[in-house]
Fold this sequence. Notes:
By secondary structure, this protein is an alpha+beta fold.
Amino acid sequence: MPARPALAALIALFLSCSASAQSPDLPDDIEVTLSLADQSRFGVVVTSLAAIESAETIDAVGRVLDVVSLAQLDAEIATAAAAADASDKEARRLELLAADDQNASRQSLEAAHAQALADASRLRLAERRISLEWGAGLMKLGREQRQLMIDRIAAGNAALLRVDPLHSSPVFDDDVRVKIAVEQPAVAIDTLGLAASTNLRMQTSGWLVLMHGSGVQTYGAGRIVAATIDTGRQLIGVVLPRDSLIRVDGATSVYLSRGSGRFLRREVLQAAIQDAGWFVESRFEPGDLIVTQGAGSLFAVERSDEASEAD
């Protein structure tokens, strides 16, 4: 998705000041000092962070739905549609007979109109149940496409899933896309829109997703799959290279260089994992110098200093 003019200008501003701007020291930072000679001996290498634009994604979980009740409702709609069409034609036939002064009483004509109105109302109710019980996306498919979808699910060539974000999230716009973590390459994903109901356990608004292709035959009703939701929004932040990340006491941290042999170990929070590293919007800024080689040596020095202080 191309950046909006204001967003592009903001990125350009971040890039222009990345050589000098740095994030401020934080209260939970842990400081380590290392001489230039030791930095060279331990092979400490630093890299400057640059601003990047990244698509906003949210971790989610998907569950394959049982569509028996949907098939039953679709059959009710087909039956109601046939009845409505027949009663409408009968009412029109009696209108023509009454207009030609033929054998059609006013009473029979009124009864035919009442029956046509009742059948049309039953059809509208059945169609509204699709939206109310399943979601507006299935209603927008139309009767023929919905029947085709159910036929493909019954044949094992498609599966209908509900995907819910794992955490609370902002309201999504129309550009949202859902991705399913599937192993089979012969699988396509179509996002059908918001589900009608809220997940009572997770208290989230889910999305209906159609998986189709030869690879979905093993996705029976009730199966759980990992998913991500692409909200269509663009975020500005930095990517922490994988080589810069270290695990300390169950948390992930990065060392920042402040010059003159001074380093800060800072915990990484609310990161989105990407191929190039971990994308973050906060706690790190363009222009920060982070250690990409020698972080393990810095941590050893940090623990050595702590041991010396304890002694």
